Amino acid sequence: MKVKILFAFSLFLATFGLSAQTAKEIATIFCDLDRVPDYNYSSLSLENIEPNGKSETIEILQYGGGDNGLKNVAFDFRAPASVKGMRVLQLEKVKKADDRWVFLPKLRQARRIPMTERTKSFGGTELTYNDMTVRNEDEDDNVILDANAKITVNGTTYNCWKMKSTPYKRSEVEYHYRVSWFDKKSYVPVRIEYFDSKDKMIKTYECTKLEMVKGVTGIEYPLRRSNIITNLVTGRKTIATVKDFVFDEQISSAYFTQHWLTTGKAPKVKGIKQ
Description:
6% of the residues lie in helices and 46% in strands.
């Protein structure tokens, strides 16, 4: 899987007027083209809403940076008290699964997240650790179901490719297959439906606000500003919102180290944003 940041977290694909025709081309553009900012940092809000209406909001700072063409991501949980001090580090690797680590303040220790645990909840939300990365196009059997699909999300109608993606290694994911609507302008999925082995829909993702934003260099990126993830089995939802962000301004590589993971401290570097 590729480490790209979902929402700010995962997927900022710039629009360059490409015209994909096959499922593989769409997946390749979405997964492989280097169209995420070299550096980014943002503040994220993840609101968990229970079926009875009770809610709790998780506040996270997220840092993204490049190293030899690879993308790394660090998450720093700031609130509420139940998760404050938790940190997650994702390091992309060449031709193999990325490394993922979590620091749990109550245990005062960091541990690697094995592949078998990446189907679990990310910080108590309806996102999983798998949701925090982009799957490579060769990890799924991708088939276009409708090359001229239209879908309306939160009042906005998108012209899309509707595509079914079935993982080759189903033991590594928490669903049997997914159906996605890729916006033809941005190549961003504005809706994803997840199904179990009995063809029952178990989870949905919707991008409720997609906007074009600029990095400090003037490059434009489509940003999934607001998103809703719904667990159809439990009725629980997570609303993920990007609050503040800066793209293409260099940050310290110290955020992507075991030292930062265990201490939460990144040494200051002159001329580089902290």
